[in-house]
């Protein structure tokens, strides 16, 4: 067996594999923090041996007090970074709110997790959740032991890491395609209702920083489902409608009006389809120029005209259905 690290670069997967490296910190003493920084450096070197790039959370999130707004903005940025990585390496030396947040981000982004747990520390209960993809737990007592443990793990599980990375790239590409219009649609509806970003964030009970992240890079940020639902409610629409393209928004809205009116009037499907095929130009007028009641009046007017025309045709051809043969109504 070849014991040299086998690169996990783009020749082996869809894109270069990126590892997110984070650590617990708040409960560590000064000497332990020095040891932690050494451990981070050693692990980063191992990860690069295997051809992966790294994002080290501690460098972007240096310890220290922050204003609440600044802290929230930072965590939104870290959540976005997690959405660009393929594996999460957590160095667990004790309880940590930051480590818990990053585990939640990994869970939400479907990023598999490798946990290195120092002697005397316990695995976070979130790691036992079936929703989290825990690739493995590596116990260690010194920085060199952590280095050796991760190197052995990656050598043994390199194909599993590659497979997860490929699946994540495929999923993200698919999600990007499905959600490509979502930021533009939120921006379109927000402006149509005369809301600033701050106003919409307040109405949706989310932070302004989160709304900025959603409108900037929704795929990498991957907002919680209930936050999107709250945004839809604040914009006066349904969650599914946020995925409509702004260019076709009025067309979709007109379609919903036609469906609602046709159900109320009891129109059969063939009649509704006939109206839709002939009246899509109605949607081009814009939301301020027609309402559901306007659509109802137009549908009824259209039907009367069509029935009159068909009646004339039936009379001329000798048909006995007096114009009802085309509507699907007996």
CA gyration radius, whole angstroms? 29 Å
Largest sheet: 5 strands, parallel
Q: Count every beta strand, where a strand is a DSSP E run of 2 or more residues.
A: 5
State the order of secondary-structure elements, H for helix, E for strand. Answer: EHEHHEHEEHHHHHHHH
Helix content: 55-70%
Q: Please indicate the count of domains.
A: 3
Shape: elongated
**What's the architecture of the largest domain, going by CATH?**
3-Layer(aba) Sandwich
Mean pLDDT: 82
Description of the structure:
The protein has 330 residues and is an alpha/beta fold. It has 3 domains: 18-178, Rossmann fold (3-Layer(aba) Sandwich), CATH 3.40.50; 182-244, 434 Repressor (Amino-terminal Domain) (Orthogonal Bundle); 247-317, no CATH class. It is 55% helix and 9% strand. The chain has 12 helices and 5 strands. The protein has helices at residues 30-49, 57-60, 68-82, 97-108, 143-178, 182-192, 197-204, 208-221, 225-234, 249-265, 269-278, 292-317; strands at residues 18-23, 53-56, 87-92, 113-118, 134-140. Mean pLDDT is 82; it is low at 10-14.
Please summarize what this structure is.
The protein is of the alpha/beta class and 330 residues long. Helices cover 55% and strands 9% of the residues.
Helix and strand arrangement:
Elements: E1 18-23, H1 30-49, E2 53-56, H2 57-60, H3 68-82, E3 87-92, H4 97-108, E4 113-118, E5 134-140, H5 143-178, H6 182-192, H7 197-204, H8 208-221, H9 225-234, H10 249-265, H11 269-278, H12 292-317
Parallel strand pairs: 1-2, 1-3, 3-4, 4-5
Helix pairs in contact: 1-5, 3-4, 3-8, 6-8, 7-8, 7-9, 10-12
């Amino acid at each position: 067996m070849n014991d040299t690290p086998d690169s996990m670069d783009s020749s082996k997967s869809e894109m270069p594999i990126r590892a997110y490296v984070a650590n617990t910190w708040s409960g560590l003493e000064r000497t332990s923090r020095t040891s932690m920084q050494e451990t981070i450096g050693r692990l980063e070197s191992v990860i690069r041996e295997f051809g992966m790039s790294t994002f080290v959370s501690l460098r972007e999130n240096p310890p220290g007090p922050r204003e609440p707004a600044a802290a929230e903005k930072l965590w939104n940025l870290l959540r976005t970074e997690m959405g660009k990585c393929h594996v999460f390496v957590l160095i667990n030396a004790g309880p940590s709110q930051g480590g818990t947040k990053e585990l939640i981000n990994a869970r939400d982004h479907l990023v598999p997790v490798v946990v290195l747990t120092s002697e005397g520390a316990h695995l976070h209960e979130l790691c036992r959740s079936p929703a989290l993809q825990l690739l493995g737990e590596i116990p260690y007592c010194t920085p060199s032991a952590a280095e050796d443990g991760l190197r052995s793990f990656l050598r043994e599980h390199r194909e599993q890491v590659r497979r997860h990375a490929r699946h994540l790239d495929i999923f993200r590409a698919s999600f990007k395609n499905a959600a490509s219009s979502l930021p533009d649609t939120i921006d379109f509806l927000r402006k149509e209702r005369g809301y600033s970003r701050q106003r919409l964030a307040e109405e949706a009970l989310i932070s302004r920083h989160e709304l900025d992240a959603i409108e900037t890079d929704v795929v990498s940020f991957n907002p919680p489902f209930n936050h999107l639902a709250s945004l839809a409610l604040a914009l006066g629409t349904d969650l599914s409608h946020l995925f409509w393209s702004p260019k076709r928004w009025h067309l979709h809205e007109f379609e919903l009006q036609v469906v609602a009116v046709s159900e109320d009037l009891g129109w059969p499907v063939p009649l509704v389809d006939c109206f839709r095929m002939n009246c899509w130009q109605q949607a081009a007028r814009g939301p301020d120029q027609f309402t559901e009641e306007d659509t109802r009046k137009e549908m009824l007017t259209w039907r009367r005209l069509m029935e009159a025309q068909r009646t004339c045709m039936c009379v001329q051809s000798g048909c006995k259905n007096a114009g009802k043969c085309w509507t699907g109504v007996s």
